[in-house]
Amino acid sequence: MNLNYAIFRSEPIYTLPDLAAIGSHNKREKKAYNSNPDIILSKTKDNIELKPLAEKYVKGFYNITEEYRREHDERMKSERSDRKKTFNQMLNKSKNVVADELILTATHEFFNGMKKSEIKKWAETCMDFVYEDLGYTKEQVLHATLHMDEKTPHIHCVVVPLVKKLDKRTNTERYTISKKQYIRDKIQLSELQDKYHARLVSKGFELERGIKGSTSENIKIKEFKKITRKLEKDLNVKHDRLDNAIEEFNTNMKDSKNVLFDKDYVKVKKGTFESMNNVIKETNSLMKVQEKVEQVFKEVDSQVKSYNTLRRENDYLNVEVKSLKEKNKSLEKENNFMKNFIYELLEKLKKVFRKILFRGDYETQDMVCDHVKDIYDEKQYDNQDVYEISRGTEKQDELFEYAHIPSYYKEKVRYDDYENERDDDFEIG
Predict the structure, then answer these.
(1) Between the chain's N and C termini, which has fewer beta carbons within 10 Å?
(2) C-alpha 153: how far from its chain's center?
(3) DSSP string for residues in 75-138
(4) In the predicted model, is pLDDT for residue 220 greater than 60?
(5) What is the pLDDT of residue 291?
(6) Neighbouring C-alpha atoms within 13 Å toward the C-beta of 26
(7) Which has more pLDDT, 275 or 167?
């Protein structure tokens, strides 16, 4: 016997394009499903709309948030032009969600042998949880559908947590979309998972709550001890009840002096027969608890193995990180060397460029002028470098203007000061 768990997850949706994509999946609008092995298209007709939506997800979203959009557009009329945003821009760039997708299901074995009507009853109980425990209104539910065309039946319930909150800056109530109004943090999510499990159990669905806070990587010792104490208590109770049933059966058998046998039947007293059935019942009950114990320990063993695998992977990654740090140091050293080399090269090029601007013909001077501009644009030269290269040359005014060198620098330049520079050789090395 496998333990069957109630499963409830919450997946935030941050942008309208993401919402549209989720809508295409939930409403089975993608052509790609023709080749998707996880979805059996012949069973799609069995999917059940729990909260129907005739239009596309984004159109439905606009209908829900109509007042919010109107309020936003009105506020933008008095906003500074550089701060104005459309409703969509505001939503897509905000850190808040635009919607939240609730996934409600159970382990696969739970649904084995269940009729569609029973699964629908389970789904309706799940929606009661959304409305009564989570606190969403039907107007806030964009769409809810029960998928029956995949391996495990499950519900996609997309909600828009639109609320009005007090804006302390303006002391007025404004619309906003806030998931935290319904699920504040992991602590509240755990409490809601408790309520989800309790609601299903109260409706007769035999499901386990699962191990709180458990993931595929680890299991909380505190929770494990809690479960084992409960199972140990159940085992002791079942053992005692079985012992009592056997003792009662033995007593009845002693009192049954005349047991009649024939070819096909054994005739016993009604009390003896009932006590025998009671022994069988208590034996089966004890076996179920023992199977649960075995399943829990299998799960723990699986998670321990998973933890050990992750630990080994972590050790390997630590080695990789150490190696990458060493490589990074080497690259940083090499990068610094290259920076220094380029700096020295550019410094020498300054002398070459200046020499050509004094001695070259018009064509080569134009070519050098373009090179200086390109290097300046790449931020390898600043305006001081351009000043040093071009002062007193034919290209001085053009390059001064390009590099935004103040005009008073021109007054500092004297042609006579560089007369000798025209004739002398330049030292490059």
Answers:
(1) C
(2) 22
(3) HHTTS-GGG---HHHHHHHSSS-SEEEEEEEE-GGGGTT--HHHHHHHHHHHHHIIIIII---G
(4) no
(5) 67
(6) 29
(7) 167
Residue 183 is predicted with a pLDDT of 93
- Tokens 């649960």 label which residue? 292
Band the pLDDT of 1: cuts 50, 70, 90.
very low
Query: Using the 8-state DSSP alphabet, how is residue 295 labeled?
Result: H
The 10s digit of each residue's pLDDT in 190-215 is: 899 999 999 999 998 888 865 555 44
Q: What is the mean pLDDT of the chain?
A: 80
**Total Cβ atoms within 10 A of residue 227:** 20
Task: Name the residue type at position 400.
Answer: F
Tokens of residue 366, six digits: 């134009």
DSSP helix/strand/coil, 263 = coil
Cβ 212 vs Cβ 203: under 8 Å: no
On whether the CB atoms of residues 145 and 155 are closer than 8 A, the answer is yes
Residues whose CB is less than 8 angstroms from the CB of residue 221 and which lie 6 or more positions away in sequence, other chains included: none
Give the CA distances from residue 144 to residues 33, 43, 157, 170, 226, in Å, rounded to whole numbers and listed in that order. Answer: 20, 18, 4, 36, 35
In DSSP terms, which residues pair with 167 in a beta bridge?
172
Q: How far apart are CA 427 and CA 355, in angstroms?
A: 10
Tokens 């109004």 map to which residue?
Answer: 181
C-alpha gyration radius of the chain: 39
Closest CA to 58 of 47, 74, 50, 69: 69
Q: What's the distance, CA 324 to chain centroid?
A: 28
pTM of the prediction? 0.52
The answer to whether 383 and 405 have CB atoms below 8 angstroms apart is yes
pLDDT of residue 216: 39
Q: Two tokens at 114?
A: 């269940």
Which of 60-64, 69-73, 89-93, 244-248 has the least mean pLDDT? 244-248
Round to whole Å and give the CA distance between 97 and 95: 7
Q: Strand order of the sheet with strand 141-147?
A: 6-13, 99-106, 154-159, 141-147, 48-51
Classify 285 as helix, strand or coil. helix
